[in-house]
Amino acid sequence: MTDLTVLSLASECWPLVKTGGLADVVGALPVAVEPHGVAMTRMIPGYPAVMHKLGRKRTLHKYDSLLGSPARILATKHDDRPLLVLDAPAYYDRDGGPYSDPMGRDWFDNGLRFAALARAGADVAAGRAGHKPFDVLHAHDWQAGLAPAYLVHGANADHRPASVMTIHNMAFQGFFGADFFPRLELPRAAFSIDGVEYHGGVGMLKAGVMLADAITTVSPRYAEEIKKPEFGMGLEGLILGRQDRLSGIVNGIDTQEWNPATDPALNAPFTAKALAGRAANKRAIETAFALTPGDGPLFTVISRLTWQKGMDVLIEVLDHLVGLGGRLALLGTGDAAIEAGLHAAAARHPGRIGVRIGYDEKLAHLLQGGADAILIPSRFEPCGLTQLYGLAYGCVPIVARTGGLADTVVDTNVAAIASKSATGLQFSPVSYEALADAIARAIKLYGDAAVWKQIQRSGMAADFSWDQSGRDYAALYRRLKEPQ
């Protein structure tokens, strides 16, 4: 029985629009919390990619001026669940991505585009935009960070819904200059250290962290890490001051979408008991990436190509990886200098390193279903989903010991191998020496087929579903609605 309603406000949602793991989480949450009495409605911007996929819809609310431009809130359904879309052509109807233009440059008005989303989301949640009030507003990342501010400083604020601010990545905060504040149509009192003001400007994530009733991160370890300067990105003091409202809830994955026994993206399905199908997928990867066929270890990387993801260190270690007999198939896009370094490595090692710049969801599934191990050398990683997909597909994760990577992968040490609990390899710090050593360890383990299969099967047996996380989010929403 449903007895609690939640509006989930975000800048992207799989399968309608995706640039990273945020979309996967927003897409999966309604299904995860539904068994626990929570009816969740998602609300996202009306990018062209979203508008083209909408079926029947109705206008829930019209704005003559939403922070300066006309807009509508459209009500529809996707996957038989309610969906709200902010149709504001001046903000979203443009070529390019959700956050950047076709040349990869941030949209000049990103602050206003996502302030409008936050304002509209707060209006809907509070019952001011054609929908009955929600019990809880769940805001995701900086793009929705001003929503708690619009609730706190909105009409009838004493009877506003509770709010949750989830930090998917502290590195992206949405900071804009002081001249941006007048465009937000917030009262002057909101521009204070206890409101949206941050270092003399407007901090959108800071506002959410400051004003939300609860703060979550996407793994328990990351919730602890962001209290420290090296991970808090300048907000560690605020996090420490509000740590009584902070919790970490690890992400899950959609186990129907990511199921190697039924995945149509694979050349051959397989299960933990019958891993033989992985060989056909490995052959398909070799063809797709122009790699020399062989039985030696095939590593993969599926990542944004950035400093945060440790891709600069990966480039340094590629000659070592090939020298030990390994091969690499990489899929990703990001910094031009890193892309160039990867192309140079592929040119040095034809048939051993294959690079595909871009993102291809089907190919990502194939890489997980056929590569032997996935390298994730992130300097910080709030949760990460790639290692969870690797666990589910028997693609052994080799991860930096940080954030959600450390929370979800059991290191392959002597005791873990003996107890058959090992699911991957951890290393620290993110350096040439540590990553090179982890790769060497993996290649040695790969040489013992029985041990390697046990690591794969232990990973595939892990619970990486949304079941526990769904219960945890539902319990949090309920505590906010019914404070003890």
Key structural traits:
9-stranded mixed beta sheet; 484 residues; Rossmann fold; 18 strands
Question: Explain this structure to me?
Answer:
The chain is of the alpha/beta class and 484 residues long. It is 37% helix and 20% strand. It has helices spanning 21-33, 48-51, 89-92, 110-125, 147-152, 204-211, 220-225, 229-232, 236-241, 278-288, 311-323, 336-348, 361-370, 386-393, 403-408, 414-419, 432-446, 449-461, 467-481; strands at 4-9, 38-45, 58-66, 69-78, 81-87, 136-140, 162-167, 175-176, 197-198, 201-203, 214-217, 246-248, 298-305, 327-334, 353-357, 373-376, 396-400, 425-427. A hairpin with a 2-residue loop joins β9 (197-198) and β10. The longest helix is centred in the N-terminal third of the chain and has 16 residues, at 110-125. The protein is globular. The two termini are 22 Å apart. 50% of the residues are buried. The model has no long low-confidence stretch (mean pLDDT 96).
* Net shape: globular
The number of domains is 2
Strand order of the largest sheet: 3-4-5-2-1-6-7-11-12
User: Any low-confidence stretches, pLDDT <50, length ≥5?
Assistant: none
CATH superfamily of the largest domain: Glycogen Phosphorylase B
- Over all CA atoms, what is the radius of gyration? 23 Å
- Helix/strand-derived class? alpha/beta
Strand content: 15-25%
First-last Cα distance: 22 Å
Q: What do we call the CATH topology of the largest domain?
A: Rossmann fold
Layout of secondary structure:
Layout: E1 4-9, H1 21-33, E2 38-45, H2 48-51, E3 58-66, E4 69-78, E5 81-87, H3 89-92, H4 110-125, E6 136-140, H5 147-152, E7 162-167, E8 175-176, E9 197-198, E10 201-203, H6 204-211, E11 214-217, H7 220-225, H8 229-232, H9 236-241, E12 246-248, H10 278-288, E13 298-305, H11 311-323, E14 327-334, H12 336-348, E15 353-357, H13 361-370, E16 373-376, H14 386-393, E17 396-400, H15 403-408, H16 414-419, E18 425-427, H17 432-446, H18 449-461, H19 467-481
Parallel strand pairs: 1-2, 1-6, 2-5, 6-7, 7-11, 11-12, 13-14, 13-16, 14-15, 16-17, 17-18
Antiparallel strand pairs: 3-4, 4-5, 8-10, 9-10
